[in-house]
Every structure is written in C-alpha cells, then in structure tokens.
C-alpha cells in the first residue's frame, strides 16, 4: 500500500527540558518549579498547588536535578536520534536557563549558548527543532515574588523571554509552541502555571485569571515571533483526547461535551481569537470576574496561532449515573470512568487508537488549521530479556495502531504536519517522577531512586520506528 503521509511529514520525538536535562543549577540556571517536586508524599499535593515551598529539602530525592543528563550527553543522544532517522525533535527551552529569576534585566549567556549548541547539533543531522517556550517549568522566583501567573507582571516577563529566544534562534528554529498542554492549568495548576493557593482563595477565580494572563502572553509571543522570524510557525498545545458519554442519555452527552469544553476553551481563544459564549456563561454562573486590560481582546483576535499542537494518549469517558461513576480509572490526571470496550496501560491510561482518529477529526472540524501531533506514546515497565535486549512489542503495538489511525485521519482530509512521539528516549515521568514508567525507543540505565550508569541502549522499537520513518509510514508492521 502506498503511503498517504506527505513527503515532508515531520516524523520525530518529543521531550521536555525538565525531564531530560538535569544539571539543574549548572551554568547559572535558576531554580524552577519542577526542581521542587520530589518523589515523596508531598509531590502530588504540591502539583495541585496545596503546599507552599521554595527550596529543595536535602532529605528528599528530586528526579529533575539529574534527570537523564541530556545537558552533558545531548550530542550522544542526538546522534542516536539521527541514526533512527528523526526528521524533527520537539524540545523545550528552560525559561530559568535564559532568565534564572524570570525577571532579570539581562539573559544568561551560558544558557543561551547551550541551546545554540543543541540546535546546531540537530541541524547538523538535518533534524528540525520544534521548540516549546513553556513546558511545565517556571522560575521559582516568579512564584515566590509575584504569585506566578496570578500576576499580570509575569506576562511582561514572558514576552521579554520569548522575544529574547526568538531573536537569538531566528535562523535555527521555525516551529514553536507557546505553552505545553495549557489546559492542564485546571488539573495540575502548580505544574502548568506555578499556582499555589492561599487559604480562602477562590481557586476557580485564580485559575481562570491566570489562564487569561497566559492567553495574553501566548498572543504576544505569536505577535513577536511573526515579527522577528520570517516564516515562523507558532502553535498552541492541547492535552487532547475526547470524552465519550457512557450512555446515549442526553445528560451523559451534555456532560461529555462540557468536559471537552473545559479544554477547548483555551484553544478556542488561541485559535479563534476570542472567548467562546459557553465560557462567558460559565464565568457568569460561577461568579468569575476576569480582569481584562484595555487592548487584550484586540491582541487575542489579531494574533491567533498558525497550527494546533496536541498530545494524545487516551480517551476519557463520563456518566451522570452515580453507580457508574464509582468505576474510575487509576493514574490518569483527567477524571474518567472505565470504558468497558477498551483496555488500559499499566498506569491505568485507556488505550484507544480509534479515539486518536476521532480526536484529530474533532480538532480539524473545530479549527480548520493544520494539526501537529506533538506527543503520543505508551508508558510501560521494560525488562531486559535473556538476549540482553528489550523486546518492547507492546510499545510497538500501541504506536503501530495509533499511526494507522493517524493515517485514517489523513484520509479523512485532516491536515497533519508531523508526529513527535513521547519520548524517543526514556525520561523522568512528569506526573509521578518515576523512571520505570518508560516511553523511549532508547533505554536509559537509571532507576526511580536515581541509581544507574545513565548508559543508553536501543530497544526493539528503535529499529521499528527507524523503518517507519524510512518508509514514510508505509512499513509499520
């Protein structure tokens, strides 16, 4: 069968700075929010914004502090990516490497030079960088001194940061994303936006005001990027996966639509340039009063994104039946009940390849803009076999079925410009901080406690993905 994927389709892999780099205070980098997330019992309360803390505890283990040491091993890793044939590599810039405190007058040259080196290495192998400006790490100083995205001043700091990196890398990076999984602000507010809630604060008011500030900052970044970089493609990013009604009861259908709209709200603003009517109704009914500055609405309207980036791992299911609601899936940040028609991963994430096609069509119908699949993958426990290799057929099977459904979406007429699976190399889990929850085609010798040589080795999926890319999606068996 002849492949339907475009000739210039951007096959690749995706990571985040805080999950791979390590070197957490090296060469002038400032402390970030992720650097305060230990593997201990405080991790999830902190991620929900329930604990105020600004310094690491020497008694705790912090996975981001060393991660997989990409900071020192990027040449080795990029060489492996090139051997696999990656056409693109999605990574993020750590804001605190460029502006250690977030509000510094001058950028940190050592941090700028590091990303210059990484981009040069990618370009050497013909790998297109796809760069996220904010991927779940915020300078701690901004949280402590300003309340992070609660404060309008952070919009200005972000704009300065965006303009600095656009200017520095304008000849090296064409594809950009503003905020990673921006809708996660409503689910993990500290992780996505550095929010810590004070006693008595109206959490919804705080989160949606912070969301407005991020949406304004995103529009300012789009504006600056288009002015500074000729031909720049600047996208937004959604943690996607449609919500199914458990039954054809109209109440279930309404609830599923409302849950999807919680996420679509962000992308509606970034892609369509205005607050949707359903959001205005929600604000009114929940006594949420946004402080919208003069000129904000025009800014949002005039600086919409060029493409929609999205992650897809699983679909969700909801119900209005109290008995059905008792049957919840485990381990997923998004509230979901078990779908009886689908299997789940070792971490309780529903495996739904067809949902990938449905979600892509849903986004295409809604926005009529190019889509970029910037995350998709399977977290699993990998074991070496007797041949001292990892035979990760389960990962290959997951990815194969999702790529097949992506091809079906292309046949449906959906425009998809690339697919960067998560993550091409084993990295620290963003949610749990674990290493045993592995996604990579490349194994990294490191355990949950930080022990190991950090040596890299190829899994069976490495060779499989290489043939997928070589055949431009034709040979996926």
UniProtKB/TrEMBL annotation:
InterPro entries: GH (IPR017853), GH_1_N_CS (IPR033132), Glyco_hydro_1 (IPR001360), Glyco_hydro_1_AS (IPR018120)
NCBIfam families per record: PRK09589.1 (NF007154), PRK09593.1 (NF007158), PRK09852.1 (NF007356)
GO molecular function terms attached to this record: beta-glucosidase activity
GO cellular component: cytosol
Active site: 375 (nucleophile)
PROSITE patterns: GLYCOSYL_HYDROL_F1_1, GLYCOSYL_HYDROL_F1_2
GO terms for biological process, alphabetical: carbohydrate catabolic process
Keyword Chaperone on entry: no
UniProt xrefs under SUPFAM superfamilies: (Trans)glycosidases (SSF51445)
UniProt KW keywords: Glycosidase, Hydrolase
Domain of life: Bacteria
Protein name, entry field: 6-phospho-beta-glucosidase
Organism: Gracilibacillus kekensis
Family, as annotated: Belongs to the glycosyl hydrolase 1 family.
């Amino acid at each position: 069968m002849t492949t339907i994927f475009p000739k210039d389709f951007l096959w690749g892999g995706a990571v985040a700075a805080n999950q791979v780099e390590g070197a957490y205070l090296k060469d002038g980098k400032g402390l970030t929010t992720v650097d305060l997330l230990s593997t201990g019992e405080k991790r999830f309360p902190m991620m929900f914004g329930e604990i105020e803390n600004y310094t690491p505890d020497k008694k705790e283990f912090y996975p981001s502090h060393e991660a997989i040491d990409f900071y020192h091993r990027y040449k080795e890793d990029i060489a492996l990516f090139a051997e696999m044939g990656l056409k693109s590599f999605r990574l993020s810039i750590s804001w605190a490497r460029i502006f250690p405190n977030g509000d510094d007058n001058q950028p940190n040259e050592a941090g700028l030079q590091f990303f210059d080196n990484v981009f040069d290495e990618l370009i050497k192998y013909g790998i297109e960088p796809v760069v996220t400006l904010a991927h779940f790490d915020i300078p701690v100083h901004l949280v402590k001194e300003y309340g992070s995205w609660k404060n309008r001043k952070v919009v200005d700091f972000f704009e300065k940061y965006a303009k600095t990196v656009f200017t520095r890398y304008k000849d090296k990076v064409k594809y950009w994303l503003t905020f990673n999984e921006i809708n996660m602000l409503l689910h993990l507010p500290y992780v996505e936006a550095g929010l810590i809630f004070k006693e008595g604060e109206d959490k919804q008011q705080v989160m949606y005001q912070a969301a407005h500030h991020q949406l304004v900052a995103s529009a300012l970044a789009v504006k600056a990027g288009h002015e500074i970089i000729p031909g720049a493609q600047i996208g937004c990013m959604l943690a996607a996966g449609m919500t199914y009604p458990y039954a054809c009861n109209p109440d279930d259908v309404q609830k599923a639509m409302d849950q999807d709209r919680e996420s679509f709200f962000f992308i509606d603003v970034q892609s369509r340039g205005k607050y949707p009517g359903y959001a205005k109704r929600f604000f009114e009914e929940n006594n949420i009063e946004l402080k919208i500055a003069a000129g904000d609405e025009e800014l949002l309207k005039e600086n919409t994104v060029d493409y929609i980036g999205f992650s897809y791992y699983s679909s969700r299911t909801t119900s209005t039946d109290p008995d059905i609601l008792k049957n919840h899936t485990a381990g997923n940040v998004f509230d979901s009940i078990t779908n009886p028609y689908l299997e789940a991963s070792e971490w309780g994430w529903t495996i739904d390849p067809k949902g990938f096609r449905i979600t892509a069509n849903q986004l295409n119908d809604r926005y009529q803009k190019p889509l970029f699949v910037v995350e998709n993958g399977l977290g699993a426990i990998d074991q070496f076999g007797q041949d001292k290799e990892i035979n990760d057929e389960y990962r290959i099977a997951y990815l194969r079925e999702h790529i097949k459904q992506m091809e079906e979406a292309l046949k449906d007429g959906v425009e998809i410009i690339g697919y960067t699976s998560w993550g091409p190399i084993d990295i620290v889990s963003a949610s749990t901080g674990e290493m045993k929850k592995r996604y990579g085609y490349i194994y990294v010798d490191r355990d949950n406690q930080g022990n190991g040589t950090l040596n890299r080795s190829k899994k069976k999926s490495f060779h499989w993905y290489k043939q997928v890319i070589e055949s431009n999606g034709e040979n996926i068996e």
